[in-house]
């Protein structure tokens, strides 16, 4: 009987002590959800990266233009040129005449960004290739059937030496990413505004 009375007395004291603690601690400080999370390890999450102009990984320094030139790939992936977050998608197969007129009429201090889609070897006329060659292209005459090619040029000023101005990728049936087309290629970077 003494043991049973001690057990009852202990249980009653524990119940009153629990009731006293529950009443004296404000509900806003400890919630049921927080008590459940008490034993869990904290989950570290990386912050969402901030989007940069033309989808660069790092922002261009102040006083610079951001650009990205992406060649076309396959029938579905059109060539894209991004300059200062303005995107131009090239979808016409023959720009030879338009390109020559644009280059000739472009004023001094103009940046020219070019890319191929499908076949620049036959669709780009020799006069247009000569004009691009005069702008500094070393690969324009090397374009083969469905080669991917990108190029950036300056009219009336010199681009910095550390800027990649041209890239080419030839079609190879063993290595092509798309059926009959090589993978897209791109060049991107930052150009100081004070050059223009």
Automatic annotation (TrEMBL):
Keyword set includes Flavoprotein: no
Superkingdom of origin organism: Eukaryota
Record keywords: Disulfide bond, Lectin, Secreted, Signal
Stretches assigned to the ILEI/PANDER domain: 94-156
TM annotation in the entry: none
Subcellular location: Secreted
GO CC list: extracellular region
One protein family per Pfam: ILEI
GO molecular function: carbohydrate binding
InterPro entries xrefs: FAM3 (IPR039220), ILEI/PANDER_dom (IPR039477)
Family: Belongs to the FAM3 family.
Full protein name: FAM3B protein
Organism taxonomic ancestry: Eukaryota, Metazoa, Chordata, Craniata, Vertebrata
């Amino acid at each position: 009987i003494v043991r049973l009375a001690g057990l009852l007395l202990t249980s009653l004291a524990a119940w009153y002590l629990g009731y006293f603690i529950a009443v004296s601690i404000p509900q806003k400080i400890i919630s049921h959800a927080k008590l459940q999370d008490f034993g869990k390890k904290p989950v570290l999450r990386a912050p969402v990266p901030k989007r940069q102009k033309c989808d660069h990984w790092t922002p261009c320094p102040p006083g610079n233009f951001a650009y990205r030139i992406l060649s076309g790939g396959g029938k579905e992936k059109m060539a894209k040129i991004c300059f200062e977050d303005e995107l131009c998608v090239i979808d016409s197969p023959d720009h030879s005449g338009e390109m020559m007129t644009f280059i000739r009429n472009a004023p001094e201090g103009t940046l020219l960004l070019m890319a191929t889609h499908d076949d620049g070897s036959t669709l780009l006329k020799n006069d247009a290739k000569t004009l691009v060659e005069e702008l500094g292209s070393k690969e324009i005459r090397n374009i083969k059937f469905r080669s991917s090619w990108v190029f950036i040029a300056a009219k009336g000023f010199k681009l910095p030496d550390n800027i990649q101005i041209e890239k080419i990728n030839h079609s190879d049936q063993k290595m092509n990413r798309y059926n009959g087309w090589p993978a897209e290629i791109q060049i991107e970077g930052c150009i100081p505004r004070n050059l223009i």
